[in-house]
Amino acid sequence: MTTKYAALLRGINVGGSRKVPMPELRAVIGSLGHRDVATYLQSGNAVFSSDEKDEDLLAAGLEQAIEKAFGFRVDTLVRSGAYLRAVADACPFPAASLEGRQLHVTYFSEPVTADRFASVDAAAHLPEEFRLGDRALYLYAPDGLGRSKLAVALSRPGLLQGVVATSRNWNTVVKLVEMTRD
């Protein structure tokens, strides 16, 4: 049975470094035997269909192929369309009434607990807020991510040690759900 997945590449095409052109990324993903390959924006979002069911195995294969093709390692998370829909549906903030730039989801390579963020003084950052979900963190930043002091606090070195994390704004979250719909 074929599953639709999204590959979330971390930290590419930012500030002119770690360039991964989307046509070449699509070719790399297709060369692994994946089908229906498409990309969204230039920031490391790809969707594809595969018969493989192991997301970690898919991610490892993509990381190896990307490193071979582009000469540098790119942390990659692979998530099924069903997972992406569940994360979107579980959003604790009123997504429909917010601008896409005000709401972000950070996807994690593994589950994280609230203990990891215990040193973050959430009250000091109001009206910004965050909530944890299933291998995800929801961030409400009314003035956008670029001005978010809470986002800075949540990304402090050591807080996510050993965990791959990559963020997407709500517009991208919704688009990836649409693109991975069966």
UniProtKB/TrEMBL annotation:
It comes from Streptomyces peucetius. The lineage of its organism: Bacteria, Bacillati, Actinomycetota, Actinomycetes, Kitasatosporales. Gene3D superfamilies: SP0830-like domains. This is DUF1697 domain-containing protein. It holds the Pfam family DUF1697. SUPFAM superfamilies: SP0830-like (SSF160379).
